[in-house]
Structure formats: structure tokens, C-alpha cells
Amino acid sequence: MSARHEERAEAAVSQEALRMRPNPIRALSKLLASPEVISFAGGVPSPATFPNERLAEIAARLLRDEGARVLQYGTTRGVPDLATRVVERMRRRAVAWPDEANVLVTSGSQQALDLVARVLVDPGDVVFVELPSYVGGLASLYAAGAELVGVRLTDEGPDATQLEESVARARGEGRRVRAIYTIPTFQNPSGITASGASRERLLDVAARYDLTIIEDDPYGEVYFSDDARPPSPIAALSGAADRVVYLGSFSKILCPGLRVGWVAAREDLTRRFELAKEAADLCSSILDQSVVASALAEGLVDARLPEIRSFYAERCAAMLAALAAYAPDGVTWTRPTGGLFVWVDLPEHVDARECLDAAVAAGVAYVPGAPFFVDGSGRNSLRLAFSKEDPVRIATGIRTLMPIVAGRERT
Amino acid sequence: MSARHEERAEAAVSQEALRMRPNPIRALSKLLASPEVISFAGGVPSPATFPNERLAEIAARLLRDEGARVLQYGTTRGVPDLATRVVERMRRRAVAWPDEANVLVTSGSQQALDLVARVLVDPGDVVFVELPSYVGGLASLYAAGAELVGVRLTDEGPDATQLEESVARARGEGRRVRAIYTIPTFQNPSGITASGASRERLLDVAARYDLTIIEDDPYGEVYFSDDARPPSPIAALSGAADRVVYLGSFSKILCPGLRVGWVAAREDLTRRFELAKEAADLCSSILDQSVVASALAEGLVDARLPEIRSFYAERCAAMLAALAAYAPDGVTWTRPTGGLFVWVDLPEHVDARECLDAAVAAGVAYVPGAPFFVDGSGRNSLRLAFSKEDPVRIATGIRTLMPIVAGRERT
Asked: Does the CB of A389 have a partner CB in chain B at under 8 Å?
């Protein structure tokens, strides 16, 4: 394409389109798809946890017996039986306020993020995000025109004191502060879980400064043992019903290829999200929704949860043991009790992006930390997903990786 | 909700969210779901055309044999085999320029509309639309902030002379003119098909004024006989490759509950659409895409097309015959040769919205015409979908309906 054509092409797209940036994780995941590489990169659930056979039976039965419904357009709100089961599921986690009127089924929780961003954010509005945070969430907020301001994530959760200071500063600059986007449980990318006290403090700050809390909770049920049960969602706290927009997903407890997530919020907001979805895609796949609803009705999801928890617990334990065995001084990491991710901080002078080529050449892949930070920091950090590889390969991969990212040659 | 709470709720949503309007057709369709009513309202394909059994076999086989792929995340671009078959399909309709690099698979063509609107339109940009036009397309454009300007639709296609005048006027007002949204073949809602000459003239005007043509073509393969084959898409004309964004769908030739459509465009735009989709939902249902790809590979779609064409041809013929028999003087209608819709113009003084209650009370439903017009006109018109009812009920429904909407009592 000529330079002139390129310029015209650029001029033909909207300001919003120019704010859209490729998701660096997904770009990287494609690059690293080689089966020889031990991959800690793609943060996707293991296919070993998918109940292929049972879902095949359910899908075939639905298509045979209810084809006229399952193959037809459906309501934008979602398949009603699925919404009912979503409400039950939230109640079991102590989120008591939503009923069906508060729920919109979405095409994965990524669509929920997108709809929430479009409905809540005007260009220039400030949205606070954790340092680090999920790049897909950042992409949706960014595309809606949000000004993203980072809040430090401690081992206990986001730093509420810093949040308050940032709110005051943004208001002082005449900015409209709108929301905080948080993944309090087994966070992607850090693996950190916010404490109960941190959750209460965040809700308190949000209430005092009229911020909406966008609580993204795809991993909350993937805890490794009963002792590792996380605190209830922020949405379960007193006063949360008017303040929290809660996002859930079946991607990690059933499978992500069936694109089924949801958002639960105040009725007036839910109606707005529904309108946004109507323009976005009319309705989510009726087959996907119906298969998930049937899987829930048959108890398939609950029956498999213990196995899924053990599956990831075993892999996380292997990774933590390997890190303890092979990580040199100056390298620190998180100790998740659920989810799919461990976060590693490297010595200050190491650039994880620069180490990646050598790591891949040695047969190990990971995601460098910088793209998860909206403030330009995080170069000396990386994300390790323990979901894809088995324990033996995890140990091998960590043993190979550590010397490459330890930065010894420069100390 | 108190008035004060309502006000706060309103203040909490973005300007974009305030531009989102409920789709009047879908709102109405819900209202008219009663099985006793003869419905010409919902413009949805008939479940009688869905190959339930074959799709059940395909879905079960895919989930059993390829569960690790079909239940996992996929690329944003779409399942590769599906993109290849989409390219083949466009080539058979003389749209020769797209290859896989020009194709993005979407969650139905509604999502394609939404992504195209978000990428091409900045708030205040002028987009020209047909009078009448598809409300779902209008909703996506409106949500992206477009200023929608109507262009009269004649029996031959959109009025190019009026379009040129409107472009000049908008430019004179300092507006940026961006695109024209057109459904040239078996249009929803009018049933009109633009002539070959009209298509060429539209492309010529678009080229001279640097407008993008958004060509929405969900009905192009649903012609009633070989004699009724429509002209090739605008995208097939010489010079269209840089100018036309082409939207296709499997909703009417297979089923809409599997949410599978596509957009084909210049490579640079397709990459933008892909970025927008990544933030919107990461990827479309992998199961839906894979089922459609297999259905195409097995020849299921092509094998069923003759039956689908006869199905709708028979129903359209019944409706046109009933209109000829029962429509009073002053009522005129279109004579579609494909698609799902007939358009009816009533005497000037009749308001089709006001007649609807009486019609439903008498057991017949339709969609009033006004919501399809962006210029406030169309009150004395209505859309009839002949896709849902059988020929006998179509005749009964038209016989019942005509006296109600003829407006005789006021002449």
C-alpha cells in the first residue's frame, strides 16, 4: 500500500477506531502456538477440563428436540432459563440482590466489558485500573475513550489510599471520575486476591466519590481448596447493589469456546447494557446459551468443579515449587490460591520483553509484564500461566526460564 | 425508582448510551408473540427451513472429535475454514476481490454493522440511509454518533440525484460525509431490489464524493426463481474493492440462532474491524462458526437453498395474491422477487401505528412503517413479513387486515 493510500485509509477511520489497539497477549499467543515450546503465555483454560462428550450429547439433544428455538433469533436479554441459573449461582456466592431483571447474558465477559465501557464512559472520563490489569478490559475501556489511571495493586488488593489521592487529583484537573475496574479474585495477570477488608475499603471509597465499581470475576470459583475459598465478591457487600457492576463468565468453569458470560447491575443500567447489546449483535448464540443452561441444569458444571480445581491446583503447586527451587535472588513471585496465573517480578534492570526471544529459542514462552500496566511501568515483570502445561513440563520450563530472566549477566 | 434516583441514573451513563434506542421491531415482536395472532411482524426466517437433524449430527461430531478446538478460544478473525468458504461464496456471486485477508467473521451481520459503524463513524459524521431502512442498521450507526440523512428509495433503488444534492448540502453545512448504508437486494423492509444501473450510479456517486458504501446483503441468495436472480452485489462492480464494505450472513440461508455473519473490506479496514471486534468479544462462538463451516463443506446450505427459495416464494405469492384480492383503492404495495418482506403504502391520512391495536384485536400483526424512516415520514405505511405464516393464514390475515388499515371510515 502506498504512503498516500495509507494516509487516506487512516483518514477514513474514526477517532474511536484510532484508539483501538491490538491485544498484545493475543498477538503473542498466536506467535507462540508451536507445540515444542513450553508455553506459560496464553491465559486460557486447559482443554483437558472440557466435558466434550457430555456437551456433544446436550447440543445434539437441543438441536433435535428444540431446533425451532435454538436455531432462531432470541431475546437480547438472553435465554431466560440461563439468566435464572446465573442468579442462583451469584446467590450461592452471597451476591443476593440480583434477580433476572438485573442480568444480561453476554457473548463472554469480554462483551460485558465492552458494553459496560460504552454505556458508562464518555471520552475523557477517568477510569481507575489496577497496576497490573487485564489487557482485554483495558482495551474495551480505552476504545470507549476512557482516560485510564493506574492504582497500585498490593498483595491485599488495590491501594485505596492512592486511589483516593488519584480521585482528588483528577477532580482537581477538572476531570470526570467515573469508575474503577477491578478483578479482586485470583486476578489476571497477578494471581492476587484482594482481602475482605480491602474490598470493603474499595466500596467505601467508591461510595464517597460516586465511582462505579466494575467487578470482573471470571476466576472466583476456581479456588484450589476449601481452605482457599476467596472472600465473597465486592458485589455481595452491603451497599453494593447500587454501586457495583458485576461480570461473570463460564469460560473457566466450563469452556470459553461457547461464548457465555453475563453482567449484573442496577436495573436501569442493565436496560442500558441491553440496548447497547441490541445494536452490537441482537443476541448471543442461542445454541451456546442453551447448552450452558442445560449443563447447569444437569449439574455438570458443579460436578466438574472439584476436578477443575485439583487440575489447576496441581499445576500451580508445580510452578510455585519450581520457582522456589530455581528462581535466583532478586526474583519474586505471587502465591495464588486460585485462578490460572503467577506473577513474577524480576530485578529492576531486566526487561522481560527483551528476554523473550532467548526464552522462546530455549523453548519457553511467557507474557512480558509491561502491557498490563497503563503507566508505562512493569518492564521487569512477567506473567506465567500454569493452565496449559503438565507439572513435569512446568518444572522443566521454569528451570529453563529462570537463568534467562534473572539478569545475572548484567549484575 | 424516585425521580431523583432516575435523574442520577441518567447522569451516570455516557452520551453514547443516551443515543442508544430500543429497536422498535424487536420490542413489538415480543408483544406479538401470541400464537393466536397471524403475525406479519417479526422479520425472522421460518424454523421450517432449519435443518435441525443434520446440524445436530454436525455439532455432536465436532464436539466429540474436535472438542479441544471447538470449546477453546479462537482467533478474532474467525475459524479459518469458514473464512475460506465465505470467500468462495462471494466469488460465486461475482465478488472477486476478497480473499481471506479481507474477511472478518462476525456474530451475525448485526455485529458487522456495529463494528463498521464504530470504525468508520465519528460523532456528527453524516451517513446516508435509505427511506425506509433496516432499523438494526440505523441503531448501530446512531449509537456510533452518526447523523443519519435519508435518501428516497424508488422501485429501482436509492435516488442518486437526491443523494448528490444531500451530499452537497451536508458539505455546505461543514459536515463530514462518510458513507451510505444500503441493502440493495430484497431490502428489509421494502422488498425492493436496486437495478443494475442504480447500483452503478450509486458507486459512481460514492467514488466522486469519497463515500464508503456499506452494502448489507443478507437476502441476496433468497430469490424466488432463476428468473428472479438479482443483479450482482455492488461489491462486484469495477472499482468496488476500495469503496464497498460488504456484509453477509447465514441467518436466512441456514439459521440465525447460530450467530454467524461476516464483513469483507479493504485489508486496512478489515484489520480495524478486527481490532474493534477483539475489544468487543474476543471471538465469535467457535461452535457456531465450526457448525456453519461444516454445513458449508458438506454442501448442506446449497442443497437446501432450492427448498428455502420455494418456501418463501410460495408465501410471497400468497401474500401478493391476497393483496390483489383484498386491498382497497388507495393502498399500494411492492412486488418482491426474493427476501421476506412486502411493503404497503396506505392512504395519506392513515396512521399505521394507530391501526395496530385494532389489527391485533382482530388477530393480525404487522410492523408500522415510521421507525424505518429517519426523517419522520412513513406513518402511512407498514411492513409485512411473509416468512412466518403458511399461505392459508397469509390469505386470512390480509383479508382481515385490509379493511382495518384502508382508512375508509375517514374518507
From this structure: no
Identify the CA nearest to A1 among candidates B276, B267, B236.
B267
CA distance A58 to chain B (A): 8
Question: Which pLDDT score, from 0 to 100, does residue A6 have?
Answer: 47
Task: Quote the CA–CA distance of B309 and A244 in Å, as a whole number.
Answer: 50
Out of A165-179, A338-352, B19-33, B124-138, which region has the weakest mean confidence (pLDDT)? B19-33
Question: CA-CA distance, A29 to A365, in Å (whole number)?
Answer: 9
Instruction: Assess contact for B350 and B328: CB atoms under 8 A.
Output: no
At B45, the amino acid letter reads P
Say how far apart CA B128 and CA B121 lie, in whole Å.
Answer: 12
Across chain A, mean pLDDT equals 93
Rounded to 5 degrees, what are φ and ψ at B50? -85, 130
Block residue for cell numbers 507462540: A32
- Choose the closest CB to A258 out of B20, B121, B287: B287
- Quote the CA–CA distance of A230 and A240 in Å, as a whole number: 18
Looking up cell 447447569 gives A296
Instruction: Give me the helices (H) in B251-384, please.
Output: 267-281, 286-297, 300-326, 352-361
Instruction: Judge whether B46 is closer than 8 Å to chain A, CB to CB.
Output: no
How many whole angstroms separate alpha carbon B285 and alpha carbon A284? 9
Distance CA B333, CA B314 (A): 17
CA distance B195 to B192: 9
Give me the phi and psi of A170, to 5 degrees please: -60, -40
What's the pLDDT tens digit per position in B270-297? 999 999 999 999 999 999 999 999 999 9
| A131-135, A349-353, B30-34, B236-240: range with lowest mean pLDDT | B30-34
Non-local CB neighbours of B220 within 8 Å, separated by 6+ positions: B93, B185, B186, B230, B233, B248, B338
**Closest CA–CA distance from residue A207 to any residue of chain B (Å):** 14
- Calpha distance A272→B289 (Å, rounded): 28
Q: How far apart are the first and last CA of chain A?
A: 46
Distance CA A191, CA A337 (A): 8
Q: Kindly report the nearest CA distance between residue B83 and chain A, in angstroms.
A: 18
Note the ipTM here: 0.94
Number of A:B CB contacts under 8 A? 282
3-state secondary structure of B310: helix
Rounded mean pLDDT of B384-389? 96
Q: Tell me what the pLDDT averaged over chain B comes to.
A: 93
User: Contact A17/B38 with Cβ under 8 angstroms?
Assistant: no
Measured CA to CA in angstroms, residue B178 lies from A12, A170, B107 at distances of 8, 35, 24
Which of these, A358, A282, A49, A240, lies nearest to B27 by C-alpha position? A282
Between β-strands B147-154 and B126-131, what pairing exists: parallel, antiparallel or unpaired? Answer: parallel
Asked if the Cβ–Cβ distance from A269 to B13 is below 8 Å, we say yes
H-type alpha helices, A121-219:
135-143, 160-172, 196-208
What is the torsional sign of CA A120, A126, A131, A134?
positive
Query: Which residues are CB-neighbours of A196 under 8 A, at least 6 positions away?
Result: A231, A232
The span from the CA of B267 to the CA of B97, in Å, is 11
Per CB-CB distance under 8 Å, the chain A contacts of B287 are: 59, 257-258, 285, 287-288, 291
Please give the Cα distance from A350 to A368 (Å, whole number).
Answer: 11
* Reported confidence tier of residue B29, pLDDT bands at 50, 70, 90: low
Is B69 in Cβ contact with A12 (below 8 Å)? no
Q: How far apart are CA B12 and CA A271, in angstroms?
A: 13
- Tell the residue number behind the cell numbers 502465591, with chain if given: A335
The whole-number pLDDT of residue A2 equals 44
